[in-house]
């Protein structure tokens, strides 16, 4: 038996994990020219390995862009392009319903760098009156983080481009079920920590663009910052991507079923979930997305925090925790009014955030029903 031949012929189903800080070069010339390899080749583990490039290519394809950069978290996927693109004196417009830590970064770090950050309404169909000659980036997030408002992304992008601003979206919710570049978005940032990884056990993010020059600007800046991901985690996300579409579709169906049931429940005042026909943003959702997911925000008739704490503390199948996108059902409580600058939020202080996992649906509904019964006592 030729043992060497057997090794060469080995094939596996999934990606190979290439672990490296050091990358080897065949000779001195190749080593001295290694900087030319930043965008496409391999020069140092931090700047990419074959496993990471495979993930980036797959993410770019899913987003409908041409180039993607993997970053250590969904939050990093938002903050790094902003740092790369904005300079002192620039103006940034951010939608009011953006993910809390992205807002905090903009208000703190960007402001400290001399960038003026201004918020616009979460349900905007136009930002014309807010655009300026120095507006550098317009940040949208549709649906909004907890409160699920949808902006008219297409109209906003067209307006932003009239002053040369770039449009950046937190596309974590819509990853794989929308084509934001066709709507005029320039930069798609996604938390791969959610449905892409699918297991709730890692953090990763991606920045995707449809323009090679913009990719090179971002990649060079991110390389200078020293941000990168490990091949082991890139492998886990690649493995998750193989089943993502089926998982998301199933979890979206479950969210619709539970959302309709909650909508009709006497303990519930409103369900915020644009894929639901009763949601005020349903028509916009149908314009921009092909599919929903397992997330629901729920306003209860009970306004006080103590009964709400008792409600979620008593759950047997929903576990208390942040994030979403795994096969586990999660619940949390949030206060939307605390992260608002221009929108008022008067619909109830606390919002219940539910992520529907893949546990038997009757157990999850039973858990919720028992929780609502506890509210009555
Ligand atoms: C909409 C949205 N964007 C970004 C993030 C951040 O992702 P990560 O946890 O990977 O930093 C989250 C996390 O919950 C999110 O919900």
Report what the structure shows.
Helix content is 37%, strand content 16%. The protein is an alpha/beta fold. The chain has two domains: 9-239, Aspartate Aminotransferase, domain 2; 243-376, Aspartate Aminotransferase, domain 1, CATH 3.90.1150. The strands form two sheets. It has a seven-stranded mixed β-sheet, sandwiched between helices. Helix 10 (305-313) runs antiparallel to helix 11. The model has no long low-confidence stretch (mean pLDDT 96). The structure holds pyridoxal-5'-phosphate. Residues 73-75, 99, 145, 170, 172, 191, 193, 203, 205, 323 line the site of pyridoxal-5'-phosphate (PLP). Pyridoxal-5'-phosphate is lined by residues 73-75, 99, 145, 170, 172, 191, 193, 203, 205, 323.
Keywords, separated by commas or semicolons:
2 domains, Aspartate Aminotransferase, domain 1, 37% helix, Aspartate Aminotransferase, domain 2, 377 residues, binds pyridoxal-5'-phosphate
Task: Summarize the helices and strands and which ones pair or pack.
Blueprint: H1 3-9, H2 28-32, H3 50-63, E1 67-71, H4 74-85, E2 91-95, H5 100-112, E3 116-120, E4 135-140, H6 153-162, E5 166-170, E6 187-191, E7 205-209, H7 212-225, H8 231-263, E8 268-272, H9 282-288, E9 295-300, H10 305-313, E10 319-320, E11 330-334, E12 351-355, H11 361-376
Parallel strand pairs: 2-3, 2-4, 4-5, 5-6, 10-11
Antiparallel strand pairs: 1-7, 6-7, 8-9, 9-12, 11-12
Helix pairs in contact: 3-8, 4-5, 4-7, 10-11
Bound molecules: pyridoxal-5'-phosphate (PLP).
Residues 73-75, 99, 145, 170, 172, 191, 193, 203, 205, 323 line the site of pyridoxal-5'-phosphate (PLP).
């Amino acid at each position: 038996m030729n043992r060497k031949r057997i090794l060469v012929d080995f094939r596996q189903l999934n990606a190979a994990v290439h672990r490296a800080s050091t990358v080897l070069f065949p000779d001195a010339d190749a080593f001295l020219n290694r900087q030319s390899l930043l965008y496409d080749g391999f020069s140092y583990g931090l700047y990419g390995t074959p496993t990471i490039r495979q993930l980036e290519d797959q993410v770019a394809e899913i987003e409908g862009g041409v180039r993607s950069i993997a970053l250590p978290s969904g939050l990093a996927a938002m903050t790094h392009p902003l740092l790369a693109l904005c300079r002192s004196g620039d103006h940034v417009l951010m939608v009011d319903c953006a993910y809390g830590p992205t807002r905090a970064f903009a208000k703190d770090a960007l402001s400290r760098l001399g960038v003026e950050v201004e918020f616009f309404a979460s349900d905007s169909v136009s930002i014309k009156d807010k655009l300026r000659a120095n507006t550098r980036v317009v940040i949208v997030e549709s649906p909004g983080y907890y409160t699920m408002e949808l902006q008219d992304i297409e109209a906003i992008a067209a307006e932003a481009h009239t002053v040369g601003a770039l449009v950046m979206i937190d596309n974590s919710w819509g990853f794989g079920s929308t084509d934001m570049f066709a709507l005029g978005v320039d930069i798609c940032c996604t938390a791969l920590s959610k449905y892409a990884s699918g297991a709730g056990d890692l953090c990763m993010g991606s920045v995707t663009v449809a323009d090679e020059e913009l990719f090179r600007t971002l990649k060079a800046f991110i390389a200078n910052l020293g941000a990168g991901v490990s091949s082991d985690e890139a492998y886990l996300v690649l493995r998750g991507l193989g089943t993502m579409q089926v998982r998301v579709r199933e979890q979206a169906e479950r969210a619709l079923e539970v959302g309709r049931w909650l909508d009709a429940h006497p303990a519930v005042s409103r369900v915020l979930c644009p894929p639901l026909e009763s949601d005020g943003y349903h028509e916009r959702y149908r314009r921009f997305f092909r599919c929903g997911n397992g997330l629901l925000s729920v306003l209860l008739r009970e306004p006080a925090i103590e009964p709400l704490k008792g409600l979620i503390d008593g759950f047997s199948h929903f576990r208390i925790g942040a994030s979403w996108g795994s096969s586990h059902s999660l619940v949390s409580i949030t206060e939307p009014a605390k992260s608002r600058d221009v929108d008022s939020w008067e619909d109830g202080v606390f919002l219940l955030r539910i992520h529907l996992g893949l546990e038997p649906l009757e157990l999850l509904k039973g858990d919720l029903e028992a929780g609502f019964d506890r509210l009555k006592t």
